[in-house]
From TrEMBL:
Annotated organism of origin: Azonexus fungiphilus
GO molecular function, one term: transmembrane transporter activity
Coiled-coil stretches noted in the UniProt entry, renumbered to this chain: none
Predominant localisation class: membrane
Protein name: Nucleoside ABC transporter membrane protein
Length: 306
């Protein structure tokens, strides 16, 4: 067990990285009062855009991640046009975006089925990487893993300590009041939604250019839905979202090391563990109605027209 522990923990950080990006983006969008169920679709659009950019230019994740972010942001802007400018049902628009993303990525990805990318080498921190157990886990990761931690710190600080964070939460709680005192509610929500799309695009591009550097149809494998669930699991708090992402990352990695650990469990059940864990967590969280009502943005999912 101890021999596998560093591998499991190191793999947990990598497996949680796309969930952190996508979850933080959705958290910001929901804090502004907009629920976007199209995270899965935006991840797939970002994945194929990032992979295509990396394959065509030969620059790997360095160009793939920005391309994925732009593609995800563009998809989110389309969602915003219908859900914000036209005040259409947000849940329906999000589901339509997911369906569109699945189809578009599969269509474009046909050309890249046989391609593979070199991936990223881990960043080895001298001396610190030699620390027993923690060294290989914390100081031998690719730079995108560290970027996800920086993104978490930035989002958490912005929401808790800045005027922008307070304004974002005010728009999510009482858009009519924010509009009455002169704040552009729709513009602020657009910004939050596009930011969420960019983060989902980065998550998808990480999957296709770094985590598994080859193109596979539907390679997000439900991670977008897990990211949406993580926001509820975290009760709209970044720190809880980070911990939740690592929990789901651990469950995901555990299935790959189960045989080495001597666990006699069917492969199909192990593959379903992350999704079963999502259902269990949501059921447990939903039982605490007071906690949900205390942190739930009051205008979440409600259209606003000035």
């Amino acid at each position: 067990m101890l021999d596998y522990l560093p591998l499991i923990l190191a793999g947990t950080l990598a497996a949680a990285t796309p969930l952190i990006f996508a979850g933080l983006g959705e958290l910001v969008a929901e804090r502004s009062g907009v629920i976007n169920l199209g995270v899965e679709g935006m991840m797939l659009i970002g994945a194929i855009a990032g992979f295509a950019a990396a394959a065509e230019t030969g620059h790997g994740a360095a160009i793939g991640l920005p391309a994925g972010a732009l593609a995800g942001a563009a998809a989110a802007a389309v969602f915003g046009f219908f859900a914000l400018s036209l005040a259409a049902n947000q849940a329906a628009c999000g589901l339509a975006l997911t369906i569109f993303g699945i189809g578009l990525s599969a269509f474009i990805g046909q050309h890249y089925v046989s391609y593979s990318l070199p991936g990223l080498q881990p960043v080895v921190v001298p001396l610190l990487s030699d620390i027993p157990l923690l060294g290989p886990v914390l100081f031998k990761q690719d730079w995108v893993v560290y970027l996800s931690l920086a993104a978490f710190a930035l989002v958490a600080w912005t929401l808790a300590k800045t005027r922008l964070g307070l304004l974002l939460k005010a728009v999510g709680e009482a858009p009519e009041a924010a509009h009455a005192i002169g704040y552009p509610v729709i513009a602020i929500r657009y910004g939050a939604v596009v930011f969420g799309g960019a983060m989902a695009g980065i998550a998808g591009a990480y999957l296709s250019t770094v985590y598994t550097p080859l193109w596979v149809q539907n390679m997000s494998a439900g991670r977008g839905w897990i990211a949406v669930a993580l926001v509820v699991f975290a009760t709209w708090k970044p720190t809880r979202l980070l911990l939740g992402a690592y929990l789901f990352g651990f469950v995901t990695i555990l299935q790959f090391h189960a045989q080495g650990l001597g666990l006699q469990v069917p492969v199909q059940l192990l593959a379903a563990l992350p999704y079963l864990a999502t259902i269990v967590v949501l059921v447990l969280i939903s039982r605490d109605r007071k906690l949900l009502q205390l942190n739930l943005p009051a205008s979440l999912g409600k259209p606003f027209l000035p």
